[in-house]
Amino acid sequence: MKHFKDINLKLCHSCGTCVSVCPTGSIAMLDGLPKLIKECNGCGLCYESCPGIEFKYPEFNKRIFGTPEADNEIGYYHSICVGQAANEAVHRKGASGGVVTALLLGLLKRGEISGAVVVGMDREHPWIPKVRIATSENAVFEAAKSKYSMVPVNEILGNLDAFKGDLAFVGLPCHIHGMRKLERMGWKNAKKIKYCIGTFCGFNMDRRATDFLIRKARINKEDIESLEYRGGDWPGGFSIKTKDSRRFFVEKHVYNYLNLMFVPRRCLVCPDLTNEFADLSVGDAWNKDLSPGGWSTIAVRTPKGKGLFDCAVKAGDIKVKGSDKSGLKEGHSHLILYKKKGVSIRARLMGLDPDFGIHPPGTDFNERAFNVLFFYLISFMRTRLAIFLFGLLPVRLPGTVGKHVRSIISTVSRSGKNKDSVR
Ligand SMILES: Cc1cc2nc3c(=O)[nH]c(=O)nc-3n(C[C@H](O)[C@H](O)[C@H](O)COP(=O)(O)OP(=O)(O)OC[C@H]3O[C@@H](n4cnc5c(N)ncnc54)[C@H](O)[C@@H]3O)c2cc1C
User: Fold this and answer.
1) By CB count within 10 A, which of 89, 102, 266, 310 is most buried?
2) 33-58, pLDDT tens digit by residue?
3) Which residues, listed in sequence order, are joined to residue 80 by a DSSP beta bridge?
4) Is the pLDDT of residue 64 over 90?
């Protein structure tokens, strides 16, 4: 039987699943990676549940949706729309439309769940995102907004033994993959998760990105009162308030270039952009035709997700507008080009090949050329030299150039052929 020492840590995406499932508490996350801190009893549960090594799409599509066939770019779905939290305070507090928070608040109010697994900011160290179980409306509200940083969310599933009642679970694709594997194993605490709500994920960054921006702000961590990655009006930006009322703000699309510098290596070979195995997935609606002010794209995937969505609409927790897969694909064309169409190219170039059992979407010459060049750009940006050099420049200089490049890529990728495909 394979166990911890057989896990290829180069494929680890730091989701924390192995920590939660270890019956002897022998694994801990240290510096972002799981390490053995006590003797291992060789039970193999960590290996079996690890979504980093393998996560077979056809098998999980069949298990969750009843069919191995799914859209090659956005996964299996029942329906797609855009929405916003109906409550203005929740809408403003959310990263895009506040839909995730509105759904969780509705579930709590109706008594359908007793808590939600969410990521808030650490109370003592407000520059560190931290997973917690929110059992009150206030705690759910406080945890709204995206934290562009790696958080081993699944670690907390190991602490649910004493928790009474059902939970909703919010996570990135890697977290949901781990959850689904725990569910498949029939692991006790996975049974407490009633709803899996997933957020889209184009890029994530390691902790150095936050430290980089704090350094650029010339603020001591100890002086920070609050830190947000999507603070201010939509789409928001990296925002720090200090205890003595100083403020620092960089628009999201300006600091996006840090994605290239601090994207974890493993994330470069992740093929899941829209959280394809959640009950319901939520992302930003970047579509130009939507009025400004923040909308979420919602992909309803499972019957459970549909039940949750219908209830939220009926209860007036969220308001929605019709959309469809072409709307979603249009809004995310730049990320489909990079994440979905480039994943196998990067896997080959990096010699890192987690087993997803998928055939990537078809690509033409230009798309392949873009992805090879983009890979080499990322490889350069991740070097110490590049990080040092960019550290000398004001964030707004490369950031503004990056913002324009992103917008060109979006326009070009949108005008490309919209290939419809199933795997
Ligand atoms: C790292 C990251 C990358 C993303 N990339 C994209 C992208 O490329 N394209 C896109 O359309 N959308 C992306 N998103 C999703 C997007 O930023 C919003 O989270 C999504 O639109 C939901 O918005 P909302 O207003 O409905 O959610 P909110 O009401 O603001 O709720 C957000 C929820 O996400 C949870 N959360 C926040 N950070 C994390 C985290 N690091 N790990 C796990 N859970 C977390 C919070 O607990 C909260 O419950 C990303 C999110 C993250 C965290």
Assistant:
1) 102
2) 999 999 999 999 999 999 999 999 99
3) 299
4) yes
Q: Token pair of 315, please?
A: 């209860």
Ligand 1, pocket residues at CB < 6 Å: 94-101, 118-119, 129, 143-149, 151, 153, 170-172, 199-202, 204, 282-284, 296, 335
Ligand 1 site-directed mutation target among 122, 146, 148, 201, most atoms within 8 Å of CB: 146
Quote the strand ranges of 23-78, DSSP E.
27-30, 33-36
Question: Taking the domains of the chain in order of start, what are their residue ranges?
Answer: 4-49, 56-423
- Rounded to an integer, what distance in angstroms lies between the CA atom of residue 219 and that of residue 242? 8
Which residues contact residue 350 at a Cβ distance below 8 angstroms, ignoring those fewer than 6 apart?
Answer: 265, 268, 269
Does the bond joining 235 to the residue before it have cis omega, within 30 degrees of 0? yes
pLDDT in tens, 340-389: 999 999 999 999 989 999 988 889 999 999 999 999 999 999 999 999 99
Q: Angle, nearest 10°, between helix axes 384-392 and 207-216?
A: 20
Report the mean per-residue pLDDT for the chain.
95
**417: CB partners within 8 A, 6+ apart:** 364
CA-nearest residue, atom 48 of ligand 1: 144
Strands, E, within 100-234: which ranges? Answer: 115-121, 129-134, 167-171, 193-199, 224-231
**Where does 4-49 sit in CATH, by number?**
3.30.70
Backbone φ and ψ for 317, nearest 5 degrees, come out as: -75, -35
Distance in Å, CA 44 to ligand 1 centroid: 32
Ligand 1, atom nearest to 99 Cα: 26
Whole-angstrom distance, CA of residue 174 vs CA of residue 12: 10
Pairing of strands 193-199, 280-284: parallel
pLDDT tens for 113-164 read: 999 999 999 999 999 999 999 999 999 999 999 999 999 999 999 999 999 9
User: pTM here?
Assistant: 0.96
In the numeric block, the tokens 């569910």 are attached to 183
Residue ranges of E strands in 31-171: 33-36, 79-85, 115-121, 129-134, 167-171
